[in-house]
Design goal:
- The protein is an alpha/beta fold and 542 residues long.
- The protein folds into three domains: 179 residues, Alpha-D-Glucose-1,6-Bisphosphate, Chain A, domain 3, CATH 3.40.120.10; 223 residues, 3-Layer(aba) Sandwich (Alpha-D-Glucose-1,6-Bisphosphate, Chain A, domain 3); 134 residues, Alpha-D-phosphohexomutase, C-terminal domain (TATA-Binding Protein, 2-Layer Sandwich), CATH 3.30.310.50.
- 32% of the residues lie in helices and 26% in strands.
- It is built from 18 helices and 27 strands.
- The strands form six sheets. Strands 2-6-5-3-4-9-8 form a seven-stranded mixed sheet, with helices on both faces. It has a seven-stranded antiparallel sheet with strand order 20-21-24-25-26-19-27.
- Strand 15, helix 11 and strand 16 form a beta-alpha-beta unit.
- Helix 2 crosses helix 5, helix 7 crosses helix 13 and helix 10 runs parallel beside helix 11.
- The longest helix has 15 residues.
- The protein starts with a strand and ends with a strand.
- Bound molecules: alpha-D-glucose-1-phosphate-6-vanadate (VG1) and cobalt (II) ion.
- It is an enzyme of class 5 (isomerase).
Length: 542
């Protein structure tokens, strides 16, 4: 019943920052999904009879891809697949299920925060047995294999019923359709003080959670409304749709603007939060106060001991390099290390496994901890709710006190999307050429102190990852970082990360873009963004 199908390689099946992401139409080409999935299986060893977890964010093509993966897993010799009902598993829930059931690994169908629908993006990602994204040596092997693949193996069988819970079979392989929320919700209950959060809601605390018509709807409704007693209607856009309702499921100031506007208005609830396509990102907004993801990480690290799961304190913090230095100050005060890693959650896995870090975060609206091996949107929201339930202060007050104690890192990211790839590569190459000559240069009154191209030396396995972004540090404790995105599907996206530390509490209430105006201007002229890309203004500012 196993069919061996001859095939030829496709160009560009190279996993990026988080899996392989392309337009849906690319994945719909005959053999495209099969080639990549076979390349994954060919790069792994020892999974005979083992369990593979499969699920996705519900976007267009999710079900079709899952049927292919299930039949190929049967042909490859897996003993069991656990599939989220309806093909649904948020990325953190998939990580949770892999760990809890000691699966060999998992395949997550998602392009995360990228738009969905027939004309949107699709993606496939492999996660290893610790529940985290495959590390670089695995993704490199998958890519190498994809360039040489000649055949794939697939079980000839009818589609499995993804909607009915319980066990069926494809050949000898068990297909276990599981509730996508249950294991995850149970884990959250062990980490946070649900009684305290219930009391908070019972006391009249109000919230809006925008699931952006993506995967977190069922999770948020079950946990926030049904378990914790948040008012019905707290969760909006709570039904996952294949095209995310035509919206861009990226919880930031641009794509979740209606939530932001509500929180800045007269009828703002106490807390606003949102999550992305696959449920690993989060945005936190208090009444009248947006919390940057970098600040959120720092505040969570400083307050985690107030929650049951972290009451013993944290062993360390890890943040991606472009994330602001606010967490570093918390680590210093706590007497723990703050690790600085390249962009992408896969670099946190070793630190978490080795017990070196407990909480991790990225400026791109990603926060998480050692409870799973992915960033976790709802976890961050529950962490904030638990902190608010114990401190009984508003978000704005907590953020203000944090800045007063640690100083404020003004922070913004400017993205230039879909620029010409050659122009973007040229811009980065020129910056790299200038690394030696930049120190000492004065640009519009700001003096460059040092500049480098970030390289990461993993303290656990000794691996080295180079060329992770050009950093330019100035003498006034400010910094600009340039790097190209590894998740886009059209042209190149140049990301410019701009940050300045402000110790003076009298200067903590400035509007971010104006507080950083001089640095923003330097960030544009230094590599001549307009001259090289033709762009006067960024496409997205967060
Ligand atoms: C972006 C973010 C990065 C994040 C990655 C995956 O990558 O910058 O911090 O880990 O997306 O997030 P890049 O290479 O485009 O800058 V998700 O929610 O899309 O899995
Ligand atoms: Co995501």
């Amino acid at each position: 019943m196993i069919r061996v199908v001859a095939t030829t390689p496709f160009d560009g099946q190279k996993p990026g920052t988080s899996g392989l992401r392309k337009k849906v139409s690319v994945f719909q080409q005959p053999h495209y999904v099969e080639n990549f999935v076979q390349s994954i299986f060919d790069s792994l060893e020892g999974f005979e009879g083992e369990t593979l977890v499969i699920g996705g964010d519900g976007r267009f093509y999710n079900r079709e891809a899952i049927q292919i993966v299930v039949r190929m897993a049967a042909a490859a010799g897996f003993g069991r697949v656990m599939v989220g009902q309806g093909g649904i598993l948020s990325t953190p829930a998939a990580s949770c299920v892999i760990r809890k059931h000691e699966a060999f690994g998992g395949i997550i169908l998602s392009a995360s925060h990228n738009p969905g629908g027939e004309h949107g993006d699709f993606g496939i990602k492999y996660n290893v047995g610790n529940g985290g994204p495959a590390p670089e040596h695995v993704t490199d092997a998958i890519f190498e294999r994809s360039k040489a693949i000649r055949e794939y193996r697939i079980f000839d069988a009818p589609d499995v019923d993804l909607d009915t819970l319980g066990i069926t079979r494809v050949g000898d392989m068990v297909v276990d359709v599981v509730d996508p929320v249950e294991d995850y919700a149970e884990l959250m209950g062990t980490l946070f003080d649900f009684d305290a959060i219930r009391d908070l809601f019972a006391s009249g605390f109000t919230m809006r959670f925008d699931a952006m018509s993506a995967v977190t709807g069922p999770y948020a409704t079950a946990i926030l409304e049904e378990t914790l007693g948040a008012e019905a209607g707290t969760v909006v856009h709570g039904v996952p749709l294949p095209d995310f309702g035509g919206h861009h499921p990226d919880p930031n100031l641009v794509h979740a603007k209606s939530l932001y506007d509500l929180l800045m208005s007269d009828h703002a609830p106490d807390l606003g939060a949102a999550s992305d396509g696959d449920g690993d990102r989060n945005m936190i907004i208090g009444r009248g106060r947006f919390v940057t993801p970098s600040d959120s990480l720092a505040i969570i690290a400083a307050n985690a001991h107030l929650t049951p799961g972290y009451k013993a304190g944290i062993a360390g913090i890890a943040r991606s390099m472009p994330t602001s230095g606010s967490a570093d100050r918390v680590a210093e005060k706590l007497g723990v290390t703050c690790y600085e890693t390249p962009t992408g959650w896969k670099f946190f896995g070793n630190l978490l496994d080795a017990g070196l870090a407990t909480v991790c975060g990225e400026e791109s609206f990603g926060t998480g901890s050692n409870h799973v091996r992915e960033k976790d949107g709802l976890w961050a929201v529950l962490m904030w709710l638990n902190i608010l339930a114990i401190r009984r202060q508003g978000v704005d007050e907590i953020v203000g006190e944090h800045w007063a104690a640690f100083g404020r890192n003004y922070y913004t990211r400017h993205d230039y999307e879909e620029v010409d790839s050659a122009a973007a590569d040229g811009l980065m190459a020129e910056l790299r050429n200038r690394l030696d000559t930049l120190p000492g240069t004065v640009i519009q009154g700001l003096t460059v102190e040092r500049a480098d191209d970030f390289a990461y030396h993993d303290p656990v396995d000794g691996s080295v990852t180079t060329r992770q972004g050009v950093r330019v540090f100035f003498t006034d404790q400010s910094r600009i970082v340039y790097r190209l995105s590894g998740t886009g599907t059209a042209g190149a996206t140049l990301r410019v990360y701009i940050e300045r530390f402000e110790p003076d509490p009298a200067r903590h209430d400035l509007e971010t873009q104006s507080a950083l105006a001089d640095l923003i201007s330097v960030a544009r002229v230094l590599p001549d963004i307009e001259g090289r890309t033709g762009r006067k203004e960024p496409s997205v500012i967060t």
